Amino acid sequence: MNYAPITLFVYNRPWHTRQTLESLKRNVSANESSLFVYSDGAKTDADERKVLEVRDYIRTVDGFKNVSIVEREENFGLAKSIITGVTEVLNNYGKVIVVEDDLICSPYFLSYMNQALSIYNNIDKVMHVSAYMYPINSTGLKETLFFRPASCWGWGTWARAWKYLEYDIHKLIPSFDNELIHKFNMDGKFNFWHQMELNRDGRIHSWAIRWYASVFLNNGLCLHPSRSLVNNIGFDGTGVHCGKDAIYDVPLLSHQISEFEELLEENPEAIKRFEDFMATIKKPLHTRVLYLLKRKMTGLSQR
To answer: Domains along the chain?
Structure first.
């Protein structure tokens, strides 16, 4: 197999970075994969020590086919760092697997990503491969499916799709009417559009919502597993745009995915279950706690 390069973006979280890399190294095909690590420069003097600590660690990393490190002298910020890094790798390799420094990956993450990037390589309608799935009820769903949001917690794409990225928020927003906004918001069940407005107003600088909007406006499909191969450990207050919340925690899939969706359209049942999950989030705290406990027990029984 022609393995896609892994591109990892790190900043000032040495413990998280170590967890992410250790989980990647447990993947069978890690030693066949090239790893590119982009280390952003410190934004403040207070960040400098942690940035240097991360850099000391990534210089020791092994277990991959080869490791290339890009250490930025200035602070790019997450959005610019990812946009420039992904673009550079895609220009050279044509496809990429992207990971940030707060993700724990299943041992079958790389296998899934590489298979998907190979299977859908020449299918223009498929623009994004995600390894994360929201904690929906997966019973009865296929192993993989097409699902609207371009989730960016462990993902991949091709140069042929990335060329459609429109980063100018002032060009993206006028392309939407009320009907498209409703669909973009998962039929009104999750307010993704609010992130577009926050970007327009300069209150946040999220690259991911612009990528989702670009895929959406080009009628692209996003492949997802029905059970997640990635868990985000950044909701501990340390991440960019991340508060403290366990509602998105998921148990990792403990076997290799072998079924890849052939029907090139969204899975309506998965969308319905996402809507059910989002309705639960809006319920009172005690109801959310009971939901989380039930979900964790279900996850343990499926492992």
So the answer is: 6-164+218-302 (3.90.550.10)
Pairing of strands 155-158, 95-100: antiparallel
Is a pLDDT exceeding 50 seen at residue 301? no
Q: How far apart are CA 218 and CA 46, in angstroms?
A: 42
Report how many helices (DSSP H) and strands (DSSP E) the chain contains, helices first: 11, 10
What average pLDDT score do residues 161-186 get? 97
**Amino acid 57: pLDDT:** 98
Look at residue 292 and give its three-state secondary structure.
Answer: helix
The DSSP letter of residue 164 is T
pTM summary value:
0.90
pLDDT, mean of residues 177-183: 97
Strand partners, 144: 225
| pLDDT score at 238 | 53
What is the strand order of the sheet 66-71 is part of?
66-71, 34-39, 6-10, 95-100, 155-158, 126-130, 221-225, 144-146
Task: Please answer whether residues 29 and 35 qualify as being in contact, where contact means their C-beta atoms are separated by less than 8 angstroms.
Answer: no
User: Which residue type does 99 have?
Assistant: V
Give me the percent of the chain exceeding a pLDDT of 90: 84
